[in-house]
Amino acid sequence: MAKAIYSLKIWMFRQQFKLTKKEQQGIADVCLFTVHLYVKAWFQAPSAIAAPHNDLLLLKDIDSYNDINPTISGIAMKKFLGHLWYLSEALVALAFFDDEVPNDVKWKMVLSLQKPAAEHAVKRAKLDPPAVSQS
């Protein structure tokens, strides 16, 4: 978040700096990403109960950001998908207590719990970028 704040400050006072066109475009890209996506995710992050749902929403937002800046969207998607190490079957159960998760989704989760467990536990959550827009 500190880099995002500094980028916003640089953008606000850009007339006081000697920035090249490439640097100005880079700062603008960081600022747009920060304002469109990152601030919302940052303020929602402290809620452990809402984390699984918020992460899915952030992935969808990153995917839809492809319309604004495909390069930034692709990089952010790749980076975020690499940080799903903390997701586990036990932590996903927190979504049952999240008021933002619709009841029909919770019902599907209950039905999934009735299926036999996988023979080998998943060590790390993996998600393909195209699957984000389908969920």
Task: Provide a compact summary of the structure.
With 135 residues, the chain is mostly helical. The protein has helices at residues 2-12, 21-44, 51-64, 70-81, 89-92, 103-113, 129-134.
In which range does the helix fraction lie? 55-70%
| Termini gap | 28 Å
Order of helices and strands: HHHHHHH
Number of helices: 7
Shape, principal axes of CA atoms:
elongated
- Report the sheet-strand fraction: under 5%
Number of strand elements: 0
Characterize the largest beta sheet: strand count, sense, and whether it forms a barrel: none
Structural class: mainly alpha
Number of domains: 2
- In round numbers, the mean pLDDT is 83
Round the Cα radius of gyration to an integer and report it: 18 Å
Assembly type:
single chain
Q: Could you list the spans in which at least 5 consecutive residues all have pLDDT below 50?
A: none
